[in-house]
Amino acid sequence: MPHVITQSCCSDASCVYACPVNCIHPTPDEPDFHPAEMLYIDPVECVDCGACVTACPVDAIKHDGSLEPTEKVFLELNADFYKEPRPRPLLAPVVPPLQVRAPGTVSVAIVGSGPAAMYAADEVLTIPAARVRMYERLPQAGGLARFGVAPDHRRTRSVSRQFNAICADPRLELVTGVEVGTDVTHQQLLTDHDAVIYAVGAATDRPLDVPGVALPGVSSATRFVAWYNGHPDHTDRTFDLSSRRAVIVGNGNVALDVARILTTDPDRLAATDIAPHALKALRQSTIEEVVVVGRRGLAQSAFTVPELVGLTSMPDVDVVVSPQDLASLPDTDPRARILRDLPRRPGNRRIVFEYLQSPTAILGESAVTAVEFARNELVAAADGTVKVKPTGDVRTITAGLVLTSIGYRGRPITGLPFDDERGTVPNDRGRVDGIVATYVTGWIKRGPTGFIGTNKSCAQETVRSLVTDYNSGLLA
Ligand SMILES: Cc1cc2nc3c(=O)[nH]c(=O)nc-3n(C[C@H](O)[C@H](O)[C@H](O)COP(=O)(O)OP(=O)(O)OC[C@H]3O[C@@H](n4cnc5c(N)ncnc54)[C@H](O)[C@@H]3O)c2cc1C
Ligand code: SF4
Ligand code: SF4
Fold first, then answer.
1. Shortest-distance atom of ligand 2 to CA 42
2. Domains of the chain, with CATH numbers?
3. Each residue of 24-76: pLDDT tens digit?
4. Which residues line ligand 2 (CB under 6 A)?
């Protein structure tokens, strides 16, 4: 009876180092760690010691005997990962401790207080005489772990316990309500500290560039998420929930979060961390159907399998995928197994997945009434990737609410270089190109990819670069 990793895994790899038999993979040093959607336990090698359970910050690991019926699919998902043999050492390679040259004091300013900032602070504070001052522009710390992660993903949100413990270190000073670049300059931070680490995330979304996008009733999923999570900049927003159908453009995990929140019974939402103003509005909602539209095929969907499991576990929502789209997946694809086995639940609110369509216009006079889509087909590109090509067919979907969810991007930081194409600060393993004593970590460093825990190994790399520079006398 092995242990099993389930939906809330955020890939921080704490369990990897707790496991006495190295049966949790991929580990951060393995090439498939970054693209992996979660970590997996080898059911054959697991000796059921339970050490990983206490190491996990988000309660993602369960004994297989205590899985909920909707979680049983994770037994298969964990085991599937080990179908191909994986050569591995007896123990996972441990990251060596940081060594600072005498006298050993280092003072670091960290800008932001999201996951990347927290993991960076945790790493810096492994140096006994280190000090960290963390600047956050909002009144509360946590970044997207507080204002992004869906309110019904409570196990994931419980990562805040770990962040609170990091902030409780007396060598860390958290300064909230201070925006670096506005209230304090980069130069001031450098005067007061040996180094500055920017962990400011990717605060804006990629805009949808089609006619009609400015019509009332069209917004970004980013704003909708911030609104239902009580982000102080977004509490005064209103969304028109009085139509029958909403359309979400894009099908990543954020799109699925939004579709779930729009279709969940408000009485169940009341038991989550949802903001009271959003719950009140959602209680009045007349939306019966949410259509999630992707420009490529089902096989190229941007959502992860754990997120799909979360969506399809809702007892009172009818999730609809066309038989043609389902037929495009091989039987071995876990998404095929999940979606084909899914019972239809007619009479309930619906989430409909639509594929191979790109929005070309938002229609309406004084507010959105429909979205026009061009149909696509898949073509194999010369580089082996799959691209889309318009077929020439057009269709419209009527909707009173349209939310775009096509990606996040970072904002330029005054005085730092900026890669406008990627929306990140150019850097070499966290060192900002051409600027001394200045580093980046998290989404502003590598772009909006990965999960909360992915920022841990990212922050470790940045802090290692910082300490190397400090030891070389470059931060004097
Ligand atoms: C909607 C959404 C849902 C998600 N859900 C999950 C999930 O369920 N599970 C999961 O594992 N991952 C999830 N993620 C991914 C996860 O949230 C990110 O990997 C992570 O938050 C990125 O961390 P970060 O610290 O780089 O950025 P952020 O979390 O965005 O933190 C940046 C912080 O910097 C602050 N800041 C910005 N500029 C300044 C400034 N000039 N001065 C001071 N402070 C500043 C911001 O206010 C913010 O607090 C989700 C992401 C999104 C967008
Ligand atoms: S229960 Fe023990 S052996 Fe099994 S995965 Fe967890 S730490 Fe490893
Ligand atoms: S969240 Fe971290 S500790 Fe928990 S299962 Fe995932 S990788 Fe392991």
1. 5
2. 3-80 (3.30.70.20), 105-203+410-471 (3.40.50.720), 206-404 (3.50.50.60)
3. 999 999 999 999 999 999 999 999 999 999 999 999 999 999 999 999 999 99
4. 3, 18-19, 21, 23-24, 41, 46-52
